Structure formats: C-alpha cells, structure tokens
Amino acid sequence: MDKFQDAYREAIKELPEFQMNADCVQDELHHARMRRQRRKYLAARGCAAAALFLLCGVGTVAAKNYRDSIVRVSDNGFVITSAGEDQEGLPDDVDLPDPASILNLGGAFSIEEGIPEGELLEAYEPEIEEYNSIEEFLAGSDVTAAIPDRAMFGEIFTNESVDVIDEGRELHVYLYNEEASFFMMQSDNRDCESYSSATSYMGQSSNERGFTNSQGLQYVMFDTVNEKREIESVHAVISVNGRDLAFTFQGFEEDTIEKLLYTLDLSVYFQN
C-alpha cells in the first residue's frame, strides 16, 4: 500500500502532456468530439465525477460477491473498496486532486499497484460508444444497467446521452435541461479480485446519510456544497453485486430523489 501511495502522489505531481496511442484509438475525431462534449457538460454543471483512480488486482473472474463493498464519503467525493479481511483501500490521508485539473486531461485514468519508482503515468484514452438517447442505448447495447424511468423525475429533459466506455467497464448516462440534471455513473468491477476507486466532485461533501430502497439495499447519500454552504448537488452511491453506481442530482427536491431511489429495480445486477 505504501508503494501505491507513493506512486499516487508522484503521478499527481508529474502528470504528462496528453498522449494518444493510435493503436488503441480507431476514430480519433470521434473521441476528441466526445471528450470536448463531456468536459463542457461536466465543467458547466459541476456535478459529474472528474477523477477516477483504480487499484485493481485482476485475475480470473472473481467468485466473490461484492454486495458488501464499502462506500466511504471523502471531503470532496467518495471512495469504494471491495471488502475482505486483508483488503486495504485508498489511504485515509490521500487527498483527491482538483477535478478541474483532471478534466483538462480528458477523463479518468488508473494507477496500478507496483508502478516502478520514477515511471510517469501515461494518459488513458478510453474506447467510447455514444448513444443519443436511452432508447437507442437499450436497443443497441447489451450492457446491464438499471436506468431510472424519466417519468419519475417530473421533468422534460431537452438533452440526453449514454456513453458506454471500454465495452461496458463504465457507463455514463446524462439527462438535463436548463433547470435540472441527472448523471449516472456505473462501473463494472466483476473481473477484479479486489479494488479501490475514488471519485471527486467540484465542492465539499456534506450531510452524509443512508437510504434503504424497496429491496432492502442501502445507498450512501451526501450533498456537495459550495463555499457558501449551499447545496449544489445530491449524490447517491451503492455497490451492487460487482457494479458500483453513483447518481448525481441537481435541481430536484429530496422527496423526488428518494422516491426514485426507492423504486429503482436493482435486481438486474443479480441476474447477469
């Protein structure tokens, strides 16, 4: 864990210029357009995950059930760690970087345990499949996802999109209009024997609380507040049988959020 912490701190100080490996990117223009679109939206709303650091021991598909993964709220986001007697997550004294600095690099990246000292972290460019609506995603993708019914929000969204990243390793769902927005981030960690990830938001975490849905599964909820202690967004995080879900709400009343979380059917994650 000390080696990982040292590599983490070193990588934050010495992040390289953006790089793109042509062997890994088949459509450069498409990915560039997607990065610009996502950065513009995330920066404008201040509600989406800006940084994702992953410590993942990968081997054969783990038989372990990850329903007991631990969600911990940090000063400006949250950390999820797979549970286990010998499992360690990100150290408590590690601060997440400024989200804006990660957005400038174009997205998430990972740090794996055992990085040689002095070796710089290469920029990570994900494979992205873009869908212009939830219906288009449901018709064209086989990625398992519990996406809330739009009718539950009580809003007419003028914009929506779904990004499938790295063949379903991550899923991002965006619904928004001028008054309100919803962002869903799903991470599939079923091929990790153990893992720890950290997500950072723009603002400070406040009012941590729990919420149990109709199926007896518990979300960890918290607010992101600005310097005036005004609520900017509400977050709900849950780990469900190998997938981690994080929902971000802006412009919605608490009872609307709780009604949506209470009725959202998460049983799909136990069927596949």
Radius of gyration: 18 Å
List the uncertain runs.
11-27, 47-53, 57-66, 85-90, 96-121
Number of separate helices: 5
Number of strands: 12
Largest sheet: 8 strands, antiparallel
How is the largest sheet built, in terms of strand order? 4-5-6-7-12-11-10-9
How do the helices and strands follow one another from N- to C-terminus?
HHEEEHEHEEEEEEEEH
Indicate the percent of residues in helices: 10-25%
Mean pLDDT: 74
Structural class by helix and strand composition? alpha+beta
Instruction: Identify the overall geometry.
Output: globular
DSSP strand content: 25-35%
Distance between termini?
32 Å
Question: What's the short version?
Answer:
The protein has 272 residues and is α+β, with helices and mostly antiparallel strands. The protein contains five helices and twelve strands.
Q: How would you sum up this structure, described in words?
A:
The chain has helices spanning 2-13, 28-45, 99-103, 134-140, 254-263, and strands at 51-58, 70-74, 77-81, 128-131, 159-165, 170-176, 181-188, 192-200, 204-212, 218-225, 231-240, 243-250. The protein is α+β, with helices and mostly antiparallel strands. The strands form two sheets. An eight-stranded antiparallel sheet has the order 4-5-6-7-12-11-10-9, with helices on both faces. A hairpin with a 5-residue loop joins strand 9 (204-212) and strand 10. The chain is globular, with a radius of gyration of 18 Å. Mean pLDDT is 74; it is low at 11-27, 47-53, 57-66, 85-90 and 96-121.
